[in-house]
Amino acid sequence: MRISELERRSGVPSATIKYYLREGLLPPGELTSTTQAQYDDDHVTRLRLVRALVGPAGLSIARTREVLRIIDRPTDDLFSALGEVQHVINDEQEETDDAAAHALIDRAGWLIDPASPEIGALAAALRALDDAGFEVPDGVMKTYIAATGSIASAELAHMSPHRPDALRYVVLGTILAGPLIAVMRRLAEQDAALRRLAPPDDA
Amino acid sequence: MRISELERRSGVPSATIKYYLREGLLPPGELTSTTQAQYDDDHVTRLRLVRALVGPAGLSIARTREVLRIIDRPTDDLFSALGEVQHVINDEQEETDDAAAHALIDRAGWLIDPASPEIGALAAALRALDDAGFEVPDGVMKTYIAATGSIASAELAHMSPHRPDALRYVVLGTILAGPLIAVMRRLAEQDAALRRLAPPDDA
Question: What is the spatial distance between Cα B128 and Cα B154, in angstroms, rounded to a whole number?
Answer without folding.
Answer: 29
